[in-house]
Amino acid sequence: MKHSAEVEKHYEVRGWYSTVQEVRHDGGAVSDTLIKAAVGVIIRNPFAGKFVSDLSELTGPSAAIGHALGERAAALLGDRQVESYGKGGIAGTAGEQEHVVACITTLFGDPLREQVGGGNAWISSVSKVAAAGTSIDIPLAHKDELYIRSHYDAVTFCAPDGPRPDELLICVAVATGPRVHQRVGGKTVAELLATA
Length: 196
What we know:
Layout: H1 2-10, E1 13-23, E2 34-44, H2 56-59, H3 62-76, E3 84-91, H4 97-103, H5 106-115, E4 124-129, E5 136-142, E6 153-157, E7 167-175, H6 189-195
Parallel strand pairs: 3-4
Antiparallel strand pairs: 1-2, 2-7, 3-5, 3-7, 5-6
Helix pairs in contact: 1-3, 3-5
């Protein structure tokens, strides 16, 4: 993972985490497998325990995190394409929600898009402050059109030993398609492709 080394030049990394879920059905007939994956990195929070106005130490090099997490997430899908994505993170209890947000701005988002094969849509996002081992539901939406209802979903992600109070967990999620058995209407991927 060539981009991971770049992250480690700018942040103190304690570990990388990942999970993959393959969904065959949700009560109905077996369908095409939906693969959902999430990846995260735990970094030391330089602002833990203090209020600082300038968060550029986190934001400035965050493109490296977007590249690294996007690269890792796409690889977990094997040879299948990314259709939806989301991002988020947890600040340890000595940090602030804003410390996570500083890491996942547009500087982070554009490299994430590059690594997952493009993306025209806003990237769904979630952030919070919590204790180590707390799970986070990373929201998913279609990467090229936010209003494709079939792709509204989430991946529950957890780093069992983090983030510790002075750490940040920064994470992304991707999926290969819509919810299995989606059937509540709305704009379709076919309609999106027809107008492209």
